[in-house]
Amino acid sequence: MGKETASKIKGWCRIVYVDATVAMVIGIVVTCSFLIAGAGVLGPLKLAPQGEDVAITLSTIFTSKWGALGGFLFMLAGTAALFSTQIGQLAGWPRLLADAFRLCIPAFKKLSWKKQYRSFLVFFFCTNMFIVYTFGLKPIVLVKLAAVLDGLLLTPLQALWVALGLYVVLPKLLSAEAKPVLKTHWIFLAGLSVAFVEFANFCVFQIPYVFKQE
Fold first, then answer.
1. Distance separating alpha carbons of residues 179 and 61, to the nearest angstrom
2. How far is CA 178 from the centre of its chain?
3. DSSP 38-73
4. HSE-CB for 148 with a 13 A CA cutoff
5. What's the confidence (pLDDT) of residue 90?
């Protein structure tokens, strides 16, 4: 890779930085909005729904404010969110993991890209069926377990893989003139390390808690 190509990639990296920063800001705003809305709506009504009652209680509130159509739209939106999240996960995670394995484990390149992608699809299908078989069709338990696995277990693994790719694999792929252009700043290693330690710590405590609740 020449210096000119490296400079073009550097320009693309800046777009990714801006995109990731905007996504982070939106995520923070949305999360804070949910907290404020929950405190403003559920607090005055003295409601603290748990488990399966959460969706039904919120739907009832929507119905009381906006009629039957409001409650129906709320339930419809919740169902659409579940389906879209599942589709996004099945489309995104296998590709992400296939790319990570292909870059970090040279032997994995022997498989074609389609076989790499499909192997992770089959893996996720089998593990999902195992989880459903183990815990049964209990939506709340499954959602809690999925949240822990997706948000806590996979996040430290992501941080580890990204750090490995940036600081071990990437330098080996660059020429001498391209390395200074695409050299990864130390701030990324610091952020990845903090994310790994923080979420791994949560994971150690939260996964046993979910199983205990079951």
1. 57
2. 31
3. HHHHHHHHT----TTHHHHHHHHHHHHHHHHHHHHH
4. 16
5. 76
- Joined together, the tokens standing for residue 85 give 């999240």
Q: What are phi and psi of 207, to 5 degrees?
A: -60, -50
Q: In this structure, what token pair is assigned to residue 203?
A: 């994971």
Nearest alpha carbon to residue 188 among 149, 153, 154, 162: 162
Inter-residue contact 28 to 203 (CB < 8 Å) = no
Two tokens at 150? 């997706």
pLDDT in tens, 152-188: 667 888 888 889 888 888 888 888 888 888 888 888 8
Condensed to tens digits (0 to 9), the pLDDT of residues 88-118 reads 777 787 888 888 788 778 788 888 888 888 8
Say what the pTM is: 0.59
Q: What's the rounded Cα separation, in Å, for the pair 37 and 127? A: 36
Question: With contact defined as beta carbons under 8 Å apart, do 187 and 167 qualify?
Answer: no
- C-beta atoms surrounding 70 within 10 Å: 15
- Cβ contact 117:94 at 8 Å: yes
Angle formed at CA 9 by CA 116 and CA 106, multiple of 5 degrees: 30
